Sequence to fold (79 residues):
Amino acid sequence: MEDVTFGSWVAIHDGCPIRYELYGSGGTRVLCGKPPAFEFEIDSEALRELLRVGDEALREMDALHAQEQADHDPCGFKG
Fold:
């Protein structure tokens, strides 16, 4: 039997409903958007890694946002 591999992507923006359904202690299904929602299943260790990487990405995004705000200060102040 051959493995099947495919790729997909989804854009999730502020205000998009995100919820989860647990499958006991081993995993969960994450649903994004209104039905029919984009969904994926993830086990506990993979979810921990996703949260770790997501936290890192948020720190970088926040730092970039702060820099962009400083660079575009309407008063020209460079603190």
Remarks:
- Helices lie at 44-71.
- The chain has a mean pLDDT of 88.
